[in-house]
Design a protein that fits this description.
Largest sheet: none
Order of helices and strands: HHHHHH
Structural class: mainly alpha
Number of helices: 6
Number of strands: 0
Number of domains: 1
Helix content: over 70%
Shape: elongated
Radius of gyration: 18 Å
Distance between the termini: 27 Å
Strand content: under 5%
Length: about 120
């Protein structure tokens, strides 16, 4: 829920800084392309690496990303509106880590549970 809230806040802040609906649409496009692009490799990486290490890496990057987005709200920082928009666009790319986290959650359940559901024996 917090990641979805953060996505809404990024969009709101981009529109507040630029007053341009095109940039708001580009934020959505960047989020979608990042999520789709990394979905193809996420399962492979989670399967071949230690899941706890992948999760801690993703979580660390998400925390740094949140701090970076939060820093754009400080008016006392000497950043131009363009710099703040670039930081917000980089922040929108947090969606690249969602496939990793989803693949991690899938790796936590035993393989037999998934096979029962596929064969129709599960609830």
């Amino acid at each position: 829920m917090s990641l979805q809230t953060q996505a809404v806040i990024v969009g709101w802040h981009v529109y507040e800084l630029s007053k341009d609906a095109l940039l708001l649409g580009l934020i959505g496009l960047a989020e979608a392309l990042a999520a789709i692009g990394f979905a193809f490799v996420a399962g492979h990486i989670v399967y071949h690496r230690r899941p706890a290490m992948v999760y801690s890496y993703c979580l660390s990057v998400l925390v740094l990303n949140s701090i970076m987005i939060w820093s754009t709200t400080f008016a006392w920082l000497p950043w131009s509106a363009t710099t703040r928009l670039v930081i917000l666009f980089a922040g929108a790319l947090e969606h690249m880590f969602r496939p990793y986290i989803q693949a991690l959650f899938a790796s936590f359940s035993p393989r037999s549970v998934g096979m029962e559901a596929v064969k129709g024996k599960g609830a």
